[in-house]
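Quick start: read one record
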Amino acid sequence: MSSSDLATRIANRLSKDILTGTIEPGTHIATQQIANRYQVSRTPVRDALVALSEKGFLEHQVNRGYFVPDKIPAGLAQEVAAQNAEETDVYQMFAEDWLKNRLPEIVTEQSLRQRYSLTKSRLNEMMARAAREGWAERKEGYGWRLLPVAKTSEAFDQIYRFRLAIEPVALLEPSFEIDRKALAEHRRIQEWMLEVDVAQTPPEQLLANGAAFHEALIKMSNNPFFANALERVNRMRRLMEYRARVDHERLQVQCSDHLEIIALLEKGEVVEASYFMRRHLSGALRRKSPIARNWSEEIDTEVLT
């Protein structure tokens, strides 16, 4: 991948984070901060920041660096939103085909370009996102391998029961240490989600914010095995959850629960937070299991036909 291609991808991801409020107005954008956030080197990040500054997504202040402006030009925001919607449509079609067993485990770039009518650049974007979200990996030398994901109601239920087994317990690890900076950041995100227009916000962004909250808490256990396990199962369930309609009521319940857990941890009430986490995950399993069964029946029907 060329440096310019990587810089473009970084710019696209950063612009999405700015538009969705994940990175709020007034935030100072440092090169190393973005390199760490997206796990890339500094050189393409610098190029991405210059490009976003020229477009108006960032303000460059002499001797101070780059900042998110208070307001993004409406025309620019609409242009990026339209581009994101188009990319999301193709990506979700790709994900749907994998969920419904319409694709083989090993695929070539040429076959994918033909199937989805993509340019090489757009295919690279799609595969980079699939790899980033953990369900595709490049084979050595040639092609891509699509990785296992939760495709059945049984797998979906098993993932949530597994989370019930590890997430509340992780909060009680002897090495658990509250990260107040992380709590403050996730409080801001969850409060923003309570105010957001669900119809105008990409569902993958809302789902990613929820997953990031749980992963941030389990990392506070300072037990990497807990954190790695949760990140893996979150990747496996992500595609099924993309198919759900994220409604306002569901979002309100989820965010309110998350804010309650944050409040308990901020007060140092870790045992209570662990108990509330179990209640939260149990409630999520009850709400989502019927949806997963419907998905599974639909997938089975597609396979049989």
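The two ends are 39 Å apart (CA to CA).
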